[in-house]
Amino acid sequence: MQQKIEYKKLITGYEFAPTSFILNSKAVMSYLKATEDSNRIYADDKIAPPMVIAALAMSAMSAQMELPPGTIHVSQELKFMNIAHIDETLTSYAEIINKTERGKFHMLTFGIDVQNQNKKTVISGETCFILPLS
Hints:
By secondary structure, the chain is α+β, with helices and mostly antiparallel strands. 22% of the residues lie in helices and 41% in strands. The strands form two sheets. It has a five-stranded antiparallel beta sheet, with helices on one face.
């Protein structure tokens, strides 16, 4: 298992290790149940809801770093570029786009790019966190 990096050591341009995962039906069904989404298109066409992909990509990124108590997720902007299907293998890429200190806080902006096995982008975007200085 890869050692987690402390957020204080993250710098603009830092690239996280790419993380691959399979969009298995269990993860998709758990997501649909949690969100009470009963749209038949997901089961009938074996399509993964875009936000389950975003959640898995952010989970992969957060598994590589230590975030302190008091961290707040403040925004995200995602573009959904292509459909992903259940049982498809995706790879998540993430990097630090910006790190700034504002008073007693750090602001971290992450870039996220998720690609399918054909190297086509499925999701791209940014997410921002405020972290307390310690």
